[in-house]
Amino acid sequence: MTWALAGTYLILTFAWLSFGIILIRNAVSLVQLVTAAYVFRARLRPTRAAQTLWSRQSDCVPPLTIIAPAYNEELSIVQSVRSLLALEYPEHEVIVVNDGSSDDTLRTLVSAFELDRVERRQVAVLQRTEIRGVYVSRTFPNLTVIDKENGRKADAANAGIGFALTPLVCVIDADSIIESDGLLRATEPFMNDDGSLVAVGGAIRIVNGCTVRGGSLQRIEISKNWIARFQIVEYLRAFLTARVANARLGVLLLISGAFGVFDRETVLAVGGYRHDTVGEDLELVVRIHRHMREQGRNYRVDFIPEIVCWTEAPTTLGGLRNQRARWQQGALETLGTHRRMLFNPRFGRIGWFAMPHLVLEDVIGPPAELLGYLVIPVAWALGVLSVDLALAYLALTFLFGTALSLGTLALEETQLRRTPTARQLAALMAAAIFENFGFRQAVLVFRLVGIKRHLRRERGWSAVPRIGFGN
Predict the structure, then answer these.
(1) Which of 20, 15, 1 has its CA nearest to residue 380?
(2) Tell me, what DSSP letter sits at residue 235?
(3) Would you place residue 377 in the very low, low, confident or very high pLDDT band (cuts 50, 70, 90)?
(4) Which end of the chain, N or C, is more open, meaning fewer C-beta atoms within 10 Å of its C-beta?
């Protein structure tokens, strides 16, 4: 066999492997879309009126503590904390954890909220860095500020959880904007629970382009930045199809770090967030699954499709690269830590379906799809792959991806209707089409950067530049 013939066979093999992997990924996405549509069709629609929600639930919701890690947030921390204090929830404490900020974040908080330093002991010590001080507000009795040495978000969240006294904790990003009734909606599943519910996630939308004043959302709009628009479509696919379906099937592995409500005792039992990963939100939920199944306990991880939180998305390719590389690296670190769960019957559907799907999406999928873009045109040019198969690959990637996004937009429009105007909906439909021509491939390359960082065992935190809610 000549080298040329061997190379041809190798290219053909890679082409078929890529084709098969894309086919499996698309089949999984189709199952998720159909399952999500069934969930939306079968469920009772929640009330949209916040006043009705309050009157129905305010007397029976469990107390909750919001944990808000903050690092160098002096310009926005005051309005962020005021919005957290103003949330519609009967009994909630706000714990802001100043994670060793090098600016005047702490001084700004002390001045704005009349903080006094107090002696307060932690219920549990989960963080690895030193607590430098605890402060409470004279004007807002439910506000506590923890000052500590820098240790990144996971360590800051652990410090806050260690001070929480309520049965539920809600961990957010300091720059997240929570819907005024978001806490009520997110905790509603706990009120109808038999004690098995350990965590709840909610839909998160991108705030870029929206009007924000005083830390609260005033008007929903669509950003003129196309990178942000593409991410709106991505978020809709992730939250309205994948996570709704995965929660219904009992295989939800991720509750976003921007907003998640957890049973405090469960988080304490597993030791809080890990410090040695950049994907601490994914790793925590996977570890909860592992712990509960090893203990043989009945449990649930749930998800509500209503929007509970808004977050800022990167608007530059550099910021997007850092974010997606970090997400990819975090997924691979989680897979490495919990690899014994793969195909292990002890872990049920998590071992048989959820973890293998994570491998498909985060280990095999990105390089396989990129490889397909390279080898399938070459195989067609060499005459070893028919035109029909080459076109079928393009249909599986471009046309199916567009159809999936449009199907998700249809779900959003019929069930939630949080896109205010037909013009904005048309803009998102255009983004659903155009994202397949450049943006999708760029994200795949950025995920390969994350794979490279994981293989090199890099642990640095790649920052994502922010422009602020008002810009």
Answers:
(1) 15
(2) H
(3) confident
(4) N
Dihedral angle, C-alpha 147, 153, 158, 163, nearest 10 °: 30
Distance CA 383, CA 379 (A): 6
Cα distance between residue 446 and residue 449, in whole Å: 5
Nearest to 415 by CA among 304, 303, 252, 306: 306
**Token digits for 427?**
């803009």
CA-closest candidate to residue 109, choices 86, 142, 83, 75: 75
Beta strands of 82-227 (E only): which ranges?
A: 92-99, 115-118, 131-137, 143-148, 168-172, 177-178, 197-206, 211-213, 216-219
How many other CB atoms sit within 10 Å of the CB of residue 149? 14
Per-residue pLDDT at 56: 63
User: Mind listing the pLDDT tens digit for each residue in 318-358?
Assistant: 999 999 999 999 999 999 999 999 999 999 999 999 999 99
The sign one gets for the Cα dihedral 58, 59, 61, 67 is: positive
Give the residue-averaged pLDDT of 404-421: 88
Q: What is the pLDDT of residue 469?
A: 60
DSSP letter, residue 129 = S
pLDDT at residue 52 in the model: 63
* Residues 469, 211 contacting (CB under 8 angstroms): no
Radius of gyration of the chain (CA): 23
How confident is the model over 184-210, as pLDDT tens digits?
889 988 988 888 999 999 999 999 999
Strand arrangement of the beta sheet that strand 92-99 belongs to? 115-118, 131-137, 143-148, 92-99, 64-70, 168-172, 259-263, 197-206, 300-311, 177-178
- How is 266-325 classified by DSSP, letter by letter? HHHHHTSS-SS-S-HHHHHHHHHHHHHHHTT---EEEEEEEEEEEE----SHHHHHHHHH
In terms of Cα–Cα distance, which of 184, 158, 180 is closest to 171?
158
For 401, list phi and psi in degrees, rounded to 5.
Answer: -60, -40
Dihedral angle computed from the Cα positions of residues 422, 424, 428 and 429, in that order, rounded to the nearest 10 degrees? 30
